[in-house]
Amino acid sequence: MLKFKKLSKVYFSPSGTTEKIVNEVAKHFNLNRENYNLLSFDEEKTFTDELVIIGVPVFDGRIPKLVCKRLSKMKGTNTKAIVILNYGNISYGDALLELTELLKENNFQIIGVATTVSQHSHFSEIGHNRPDNDDLEKINEFSKKIVEKLENGIENEIFVSGYKPYQDYVKPSFSVSCDEDLCTECLDCAYTCPEDAIPMDSPTQTDRGLCTTCSTCINVCSEAARSFEGPEYNSQMRDAMINNFERKEAEFFL
Ligand SMILES: Cc1cc2nc3c(=O)[nH]c(=O)nc-3n(C[C@H](O)[C@H](O)[C@H](O)COP(=O)(O)O)c2cc1C
Predict the structure, then answer these.
(1) Rounded to the nearest whole angstrom, what is the distance from the C-alpha of residue 122 to the centroid of ligand 1?
(2) Whole-angstrom Cα distance, residue 58 to residue 19?
């Protein structure tokens, strides 16, 4: 019997795969749930008496800047946390060290870490349709081991790889395009964009200075009006596909 008052899920998931994995882990815990979706949640919060699952995707071998900012406002009280770092079959770079260090500094006690692989949100052929059944099976095995660890009261420090100073962010040379013939100006994209990069009075445009190409707008658009395209995009996609066709597997740290 686990002695937590509830399960809190904290995640940032512009194209939905990180959230899917967090939900898969959450299934193993019969606790009331609370969601903190970092696409919109931007408040101070202290977690007590609860188990927390934190899911974050990798952007440029780092954790997204916005996640870093919003997660910095979330504190634990030696609160037990399961960490999911999700990446698009290229590399997780320094993001794992960055995420775990941030959480430890904020007084979370990390009890398990998974680096999982999902379809790349820029280049859908990389990691296509992942997480697949194989991935989910491994994630479920990991979740069962965490339950056992908690039931047996096992506490140990978890060490992960990564280097400091962390690698630099590299902004992609492509941006999001909008097909004006398809766009109905419903404004779903403008309301959901976590960077406010889509002007309310001109939603077919994207402020390239603000846009991080996170892909939230593409995924929220019911008319499929938004996409990545253009020669720069096509050339980066070709390079990325050549260099990352080999399947990478999840890693687990317990
Ligand atoms: C701006 C940006 C940068 C990314 N950088 C990396 C990277 O460095 N390595 C990698 O393997 N995947 C990278 N990805 C892919 C995402 O980590 C991956 O698609 C993840 O599954 C997205 O999670 P989500 O579906 O929850 O949004 C990047 C995606 C974006 C949007």
Answers:
(1) 7
(2) 13
Confidence of residue 61 (pLDDT cuts 50, 70, 90): very high
Give the pLDDT of residue 143.
98
- What pLDDT, on the 0 to 100 scale, is given for residue 239? 95
pTM of the model: 0.98
Angle at 65 between CA 205 and CA 170, to 5 degrees: 75
Beta bridge partners of 45: 74
Residue 1 has pLDDT above 80, yes or no: no
Share above pLDDT 90 across residues of the chain, in percent, rounded to a whole number: 97
pLDDT digits (tens, 9 = 90+) for 209-243: 999 999 999 999 999 999 999 999 999 999 999 99
Domain boundaries, the chain: 6-164+247-253, 176-229
Q: Which residue has a Cα nearest atom 28 of ligand 1? A: 59
CA 4, 144, 14, 163 torsion: positive or negative?
positive
Q: How far is CA 65 from the centre of its chain?
A: 12
The answer to whether 128 and 120 have CB atoms below 8 angstroms apart is: no
Specify the pLDDT at position 171.
87
The Cα-based distances of 60 to 136, 158, 240 in angstroms read 24, 24, 13
Q: Which atom of ligand 1 is nearest to the CA of 244?
A: 11
Distance 150 CA to ligand 1 centre (A): 30
The CATH code that applies to domain 176-229 is 3.30.70.20
CATH superfamily of 6-164+247-253: Flavodoxin domain (3.40.50.360)
Report which of 192, 21, 211 is spatially closest to residue 119, judged by C-alpha positions.
21
